[in-house]
Amino acid sequence: MGVRVWAACLPAGSIAVVSDPLLQMRGIDKWFPGVHALNHVDFSVRPGEVHALIGGNGAGKSTLLKVLTGVLRADGGSITFEGTPLVCGSPAEAVRCGISTIYQEVNLVRTLSVAENLLLGRAPRAWYGLSWRRMRMRAVELLGGLGIDIDVSRPLGSYPVGVQQMVCVARAVDTDARLIVMDEPTSSLDARETRRFFALLEQLRARGLSVIFVTHFLDQVYRISDRITILRNGRQVGVFEAAALPRTHLVAHMLGRSPAEVEAAAGATAAASAVAPERPAAEHATTLGGATPVLSVHDLGRCGTLAPVSLAARAGEVLGFAGLLGSGRTELARLVFGADRADSGVFEVDGRRVKIKGPRRAILLGLAMAPEDRQADGLVQDLSVRENIVLALQAAGRRGAAGGRTGSENAGCGDAGGRGGGFGWGARARQRSLARRFVEQLGIVCADLDQPVRNLSGGNQQKVILARWLACRPRVLILDEPTRGIDVGAKAEIERLVRELCRAGLAVIFISAELDEVARLSDRVLVLRDRRAVGTLERSRISEEAIMAAIAGKGGQEPFQQP
Amino acid sequence: MTKQTPLALWRRPTFWPVALLALLWLLNAALTPNFARIEVRDGRLFGSLIDVIHRGAPVMLLAVGMTLVIAMRGIDLSVGSVMAMAGAVAAQLIAVHDAPLAVVVAVPLVVAAAAGLWNGLLVTLAGMQPIVATLILLVAGRGVAQLITGGQITTFERPAFQFLGTGALLGVPFTLWLVAGVTLLVGALLRLTPLGLYVESIGGNERAARLAGVRVRAIKVAGYVLTGLCAGLAGLIATADIKAADVSNCGLYIELDAILAVVLGGTSLSGGRARMVGALAGALIMQTLTTTMLMRGIGQEYALVIKAVVALLVCLIYTPRFRGALQRLVGREVHAA
Amino acid sequence: MSLLRRNIPLLASVAVYAALYVGASLAYHHFCSLRVLINLFEENAPLGLTAVGMTFVILAGGIDLSVGSVMALCSIVIAVLIEQHGWHPLAALALALGLSTLLGTGMGCIIHYLQIAPFIVTLAGMFFARGLALIISVEPVPIRAAGHAWLGGLGIPLTGQLDIPITALVFLGALFVAAYVTVLTPIGRSVYALGGDEEAALLMGLRIGRTKVFVYTVSGFCSGLAGVLFTLYQSAGNPSAGVGMELDAIAAVVVGGTLLTGGVGGVCGTLIGVLIFGTIQTAIIFDGRLSSWWTRVAIGTLLLLFVLLQRALTSATGRRKAQHVSG
């Protein structure tokens, strides 16, 4: 067990002021319709520090940063920067004030040369116009100062993302930024690029620049940051010195638990035994009467996205994926469903080997997935409730019914195709009755079936997607954060529904950022960390604390040692 | 569940184009002498309204296919050239090969469908932007048509074929029957089969459509093929109408008319809902403008200017910014009431 | 290596042009002469100018369908002002240029401030300008004024009999200015930035609205200038001139190596594109046996090949990017 450093876990106000903060945000409030996105949040950054901003989905990180960089206007609170009140209405204005932002996706013009990207808008002139020679020299000098040696006349897009990110930083430095906001800058970088990027951060720190660093990788938080601010559900949970905050405590704060709880749990079930090493799917088979899993997957992986994972989903069982945001849980779900192309992996449905090349094939095999991003990947906003519900069923068409390739009688997607719509005069009426059945069953609140789905609340939208897949009568249902962004009542309903579906013999894969949900619902939990599976917890061992301990990983009890 | 509240009339998507068309026709009936008069001569109907529909037939046909393509975030610039190609093939088959009617109709349609297939494959397989992909056939297609006819205006006499363009059935011009038939057919495809749902889901959210198992590529290709077929049919009508394949003028600029008709009809260039009735109304609006000008002795040149202004105004109505302003305005009235 | 790779589209254009020129010179007697070359420039000057304007618009990620109509409008305005209202040719030219520039600015403003798709706005602009031209005069109007003829006869003597005519000179001059603006001025570079990534350009603090209006203004001006050259070359104004020209101009720009998605390319490529276009046309005329419509087939084929080439090149880098984003 590690040394407990309680002193580090004091509330923000009591941290001794080392020097006047560069940035001071006090009592920031932000309301979105129906949501208190930021609830009186305090946040400060000292000169020359790397300050990590941590929190799960909906914690309010990006809202806070948007308020800071002028994308959004706060509803309350004050911001002072370098001792004076900060007023800026756009990112461009923020840049002029000395606050630059570096986004996850590089926000420079890929088709222009590196030199231009660095100096556009402030390019050196000569009597005849822009001086390309001096621009190149200036760019080389600028990058050289940060230890980057590349050909500046090549287009930015011809360099890997890691280099592009560094060019972003160089531009920020050159625009005389005193504070650089980095929103998941390393999420698309590989290990080597990340190392180089951190070397660059060290340099910035040495120059006295301040950095706000948002990431989901805990290792990186400890590797680079001086202090950590944790947000949860729009509230600031605490500000900590990184060196004095044990990793379990960090995870506990992010998940809204008290560190003591976690430590006690972790102490009771020694970390080593809590996390069973991952075993081949066949071994699990004994746990549920030896039935062949509906779907089993071996060594499914994709280079740079997810290290190979094996899993098995059984009828009547909930398989949970647990992990922090960015741990690879969504990526795994998408690979299973064929939404992204996998580099490796073998699928078996009912013990027979199959290939899943795309979502369509997966659907015909009896899979269904409610995606994490409802808006971008799930709903067609302009279409009505009815159309959104029957979409997948219609798309599967009659071929699915004829094929019945899953090998099992009626469970395939297609069989309902005949009943649910298809062709002819009665199609619309049949669609309506099908949609009405699901609207009633799932308790979807909508004015009428032909209402555009965009007018529904988040919870009802989620149910529409569920209805879409249930109409297909899938055998494996993947739910990626089905409870995200919906109210408590709807959450409870969805939980109840998952249980019911399981009883009816469905295999459910359930993904959620809320560990209590995963712990309550799952029969087994696959734990992921930093884009790899770290182990599977069996029914008897599942508890929030055990999951948390597994997420925090080895060395969870001690503050991270810098190498 | 609450009771369905009937949608305010002016909020219905096809209201604007249809209302504008009705307004135009009413104004014309009041102001232009003889506009509304329809008489029976030699067993067929004559009159300005009939004329508007008859002349608007090619654009209406094109608009039917174009609506689908645009609803899927595509565009087809090549329809005019495809018309010319289809016309050239038909004329050549009659004038040179003296082929039977079935062949004269079928072969150009196959050629047109092949052109559509080509466009569709360029868009889906080669991954080109639709504007570029169809620009290629727009530029080259008319040249190919010219090569088919050897640069001549191929004239012909074949009453059975001419019937396509000038004949009348039960007193109504055959073109009208054709437009009605194609519209009903495609409408039925959209309403009675899942095709409409596929098209609109692709236009609304392509990623979601793919994840729901919709065969995005196949549906897109089908849309372009259908547009090609419509263009082929329009080409046959235009050719039959003048008993000649005038390749350099057949369907010249008509792609722009068709796109404008679709946009006037309320289908957004950025995809989404397919408004076929609106598109037909859009096509008729423009033809009415042209015909009215002619009847009132105003040159066609004014029609161009007015067309431009009307197009811009209607597009303005469809912009979110303007809609927002309108909604705020109307909302205030409702509150006041 | 990278320099080579980046310029593959342009190099391919140059190679195609060289091959065409050499091939035609070998095949047809007298093709390889200074006179033919000068004619090439003279005849294609209006197309070339509209293509130069179009290059700006396409580099910025837009499209301008109105260029042919605006050119026709300018030509007829000039002709009518000189012939029927007795204006001084220079005054007429200036007014026409002002008018076309204003049209371009107007379309740019509508596109930017009202946020209507460029395709639709410039399509309406095309109808509008064509209609206006036909309203002014349905028939072509010949220009007989001596001042105008004198202007059209200007040129730089090259050899005893050969002049470089003013139309070719204006075209080359405009090309030079355009090249200067795109390469060496801040506004020119923001055109590239806008076409490369509008959102990024906005975040970099560039003035997007100004740039957008600028490119359509330039295109309007270039179309107007094309109209001026048209009157000088044809000694007439024609309201039906330049039908379909917008597509030829787009084709020339794309064949010249400018990406239709914006952000990559340049006016030098456009010159090559226009020359390819003109050479094919001239060669077909020289041949005498081939239908002039082969030009269109050839241009269509070239367009296809170039777009496929660009596609292959960008998707190669695109894949790299995608890999990194996901990995």
Please give a structural write-up.
The complex is a heterotrimer of chains A (563), B (337) and C (327). Chain A is of the alpha/beta class and 563 residues long. Chain A is 37% helix and 22% strand. Chain A has 21 helices and 22 strands. In chain A, helix 5 packs parallel to helix 6, helix 9 (259-268) crosses helix 21 and helix 15 runs parallel beside helix 18. Mean pLDDT of chain A is 78; it is low at 1-17, 269-289, 398-421 and 555-563. By secondary structure, chain B is mostly helical. Chain B has a single domain, classed as ABC transporter involved in vitamin B12 uptake, BtuC. Helix content of chain B is 71%, strand content 5%. Chain B has helices spanning 15-31, 48-71, 79-95, 101-124, 130-149, 159-166, 174-192, 195-204, 206-211, 216-242, 254-264, 276-295, 300-318, 320-336, and strands at residues 38-41, 44-47, 154-155, 168-169, 172-173, 244-245. In chain C, a hairpin with a 5-residue loop joins strand 2 and strand 3. A two-stranded antiparallel ribbon of chain C has the order 1-4. Chains in contact: A-B, A-C, B-C. At the B-C interface, helix 5, helix 11, helix 13 and helix 14 of B face helix 7, helix 13 and helix 15 of C.
Blueprint (SSEs and pairs):
The complex is a heterotrimer of chains A (563), B (337) and C (327).
Chain A: E1 23-32, E2 35-45, E3 50-54, H1 61-68, E4 76-81, E5 84-85, H2 91-97, E6 99-102, H3 114-119, E7 125-126, E8 129-130, H4 132-145, H5 161-174, E9 179-183, H6 191-206, E10 210-214, H7 218-224, E11 227-232, E12 235-241, H8 247-255, H9 259-268, H10 271-274, H11 281-284, E13 295-302, E14 306-313, E15 318-322, H12 329-337, E16 344-349, E17 352-354, H13 359-364, E18 367-370, H14 374-378, H15 385-403, H16 415-420, H17 427-442, H18 458-471, E19 476-480, H19 488-503, E20 507-511, H20 515-521, E21 524-529, E22 532-538, H21 544-552
Parallel strand pairs in A: 3-10, 3-11, 6-9, 9-10, 15-20, 15-21, 18-19, 19-20
Antiparallel strand pairs in A: 1-2, 1-4, 4-5, 7-8, 11-12, 13-14, 13-16, 16-17, 21-22
Helix pairs in contact in A: 5-6, 8-9, 8-21, 9-21, 15-17, 15-18, 17-18
Chain B: H1 15-31, E1 38-41, E2 44-47, H2 48-71, H3 79-95, H4 101-124, H5 130-149, E3 154-155, H6 159-166, E4 168-169, E5 172-173, H7 174-192, H8 195-204, H9 206-211, H10 216-242, E6 244-245, H11 254-264, H12 276-295, H13 300-318, H14 320-336
Antiparallel strand pairs in B: 1-2, 3-6, 4-5
Helix pairs in contact in B: 1-12, 2-7, 2-8, 2-10, 2-11, 2-12, 3-4, 3-5, 3-10, 4-5, 4-10, 6-10, 8-10, 11-12, 12-13
Chain C: H1 2-6, H2 8-27, H3 34-43, H4 45-59, H5 67-85, H6 89-113, H7 118-136, E1 141-142, H8 146-153, E2 155-157, E3 163-165, H9 166-184, H10 186-196, H11 198-203, H12 208-234, E4 236-237, H13 245-255, H14 267-287, H15 294-326
Antiparallel strand pairs in C: 1-4, 2-3
Helix pairs in contact in C: 2-14, 3-4, 3-9, 3-14, 4-9, 4-10, 4-12, 4-13, 4-14, 5-6, 5-7, 5-12, 6-7, 6-12, 8-12, 9-10, 9-12, 10-12, 13-14, 14-15
